[in-house]
Write a structure and sequence with these properties.
mainly alpha; MetI-like fold; 2 domains; 14 helices; globular
């Protein structure tokens, strides 16, 4: 087991390097990079922000953000363009920039945002707690609901309970999280009917003056609707996965033998079937958490005005703020790789019979 874990840990930096390299290369050929964005802003300022560039920027060229610009008669001075390229670091070859970037990332030096004039690490620190909060609570609730429900559906397979619960979770799965969030706002956040919950943020403006218990209640009050929006469609897959896993094991020979020996159904279910059936459920934990953390929460953060990492990444991609894009990618990748490693460790804890040493990495 220890040799396998060591190989997996050593593989993390290699995988991380490959992820960063691929995305860095893609950015070199993405049109409308940071320099182009800055030129566009300058041209808009020249035109007074009146809906156009006044003929200044006629085409955005490729070249990873520091590339060539085709400009009209009101184009910027070439020396100033050279200054912009140097300011963004595009005066150096791409491979040199990548090597410097990765060296800095090793010590968590993500540089400064191109357009926010703040260290990227400070920006990520400010946004990450919001996304982690949504992700952890949503994942916890999804698992607490899905596993008992899936087991119950497997035990009562084909019954009326199985039929109507399947109908309900199918409807929940068909409802997009953002649409359900809008529905909750209209219904419970002062949209049209009641105003039981706040519309934005995860805390009240004066939360610092509350007692500890008051801050906890205020947090729960603010987080209820966003977490409910993420949970509503998230437990469908896990519930059906749990049910099918238990159904498959309930039909195996060792269960028939255990029943023939006179063991109770609870002893069979939780003493024998549970270990085997839960393996496939545990394997989905990293993807569930990462999905909620970094993709599923994007629209929810937008709807409920939650300033989290998902919204930050989207805005950075649109605005070509590459230090933020690459820094959040770096953080996401590390979290995902570590969660996958933890998944294997949980495998072993649930079923010690799993032989890590014989597995290929």
């Amino acid at each position: 087991m220890y040799a396998y874990l060591l190989r997996r840990i050593l593989l993390i930096p290699v995988t991380l390097l490959a992820i960063m390299l691929v995305n860095f290369v893609v950015m070199q050929f993405t049109p409308g990079g940071p320099v182009d964005q800055m030129v566009h802003r300058i041209e808009m300022a020249r035109a007074g922000g009146a809906g156009g560039t006044g003929g200044g920027l006629t085409e955005v060229a490729s070249g990873g953000g520091g590339g060539r610009l085709m400009r009209g008669s009101r184009g910027l001075d070439p020396e100033y363009l050279a200054f912009l390229n140097k300011s963004f670091g595009f005066d150096e070859p791409a491979h040199v920039r990548f090597i410097k970037m990765m060296k800095n990332y090793l010590v968590l030096d993500f540089g400064e945002s191109y357009f926010q004039n703040r260290p990227v690490l400070d920006i990520v620190k400010d946004k990450l707690p919001v996304s982690i909060t949504l992700g952890l609570w949503s994942t916890l609730i999804i698992y607490l609901v899905s596993i008992p429900l899936g087991i119950r559906k497997a035990i009562r397979h084909g019954s009326a309970f199985d039929a109507w619960t399947s109908f309900i979770i199918t409807i929940c799965h068909a409802i997009p999280a953002f649409l359900f969030g809008v529905f909750l706002i209209v219904l419970f956040a002062g949209g049209r009917y009641w105003e039981f919950f706040p519309l934005r943020g995860l805390s009240s403006p004066n939360a610092d003056t509350f007692s500890l218990w008051g801050r906890i209640k205020d947090y729960i009050w603010h987080a209820t609707l966003p977490v409910a929006s993420l949970v509503v469609g998230g437990f469908t897959y896990l519930t059906l996965l749990t049910k099918n896993s238990f159904l498959e094991d309930l039909g195996k020979q060792y269960v028939v033998t255990a029943r023939a020996k006179g063991l109770t159904e609870n002893r069979i279910l939780y003493g024998h079937v549970f270990q085997n059936a839960m393996l496939i459920v545990i394997s989905s934990f990293p993807s569930t958490l990462v999905g909620i953390l970094f993709t599923g929460s994007l629209l929810i953060e937008q709807i409920f005005s939650l300033d989290g990492i998902g919204l930050l990444s989207y805005q950075a991609i649109v605005g070509r703020d590459y230090p933020i894009v690459l820094a959040t990618l770096y953080v996401f990748s590390i979290i995902g790789l570590v969660l996958n490693l933890l998944s294997d460790l949980i495998y072993h804890l649930v079923d010690p019979r799993i032989d890590f040493e014989s597995r290929e990495v």
